[in-house]
Amino acid sequence: MEIAQIVGMALITTMLLMILRQQKPVMAIMLSLVFGVMIFMFLMDKMAAIVNVMQELARRAEMNYFFLTTILKILGVAYLGEFAAAICQDAGEHAVAKKVEFAAKIIIAVLALPIMIAILDSLMELMPR
């Protein structure tokens, strides 16, 4: 019941944040950042298990390893961008958060280009000439 632990930590952190935001806003931002890092560390084993399963599936399917690493990079950029944007929003910097989200989307699009090209090349080979 890891989710129960996470929810418990989130509720306690939220209550502390509500108190700190009124008296010491900088400390509230720091607490929010520490909570995010704790959640990340708490879930590190789960993320490693997912990556291992994806690597095993790619090995069994004899899939090009380049595509798997690209997909993992895309997932990393998406999660990191969302995490950074949430921290910026917690600090009250919504405009910066939007720019981080925009940058993450552009980076994801660039990373996905080789996959889109490979899919289009495969489709072009299947089409009759």
From TrEMBL:
Pfam families: SpoIIIAC. InterPro entries: Spore_III_AC/AD, Spore_III_AD. Keywords: Membrane, Transmembrane, Transmembrane helix. It comes from Candidatus Syntrophocurvum alkaliphilum. Signal peptide: none annotated. This is Stage III sporulation protein AD. The chain crosses the membrane at residues 25-44, 65-87, 102-123. The keyword Transmembrane applies.
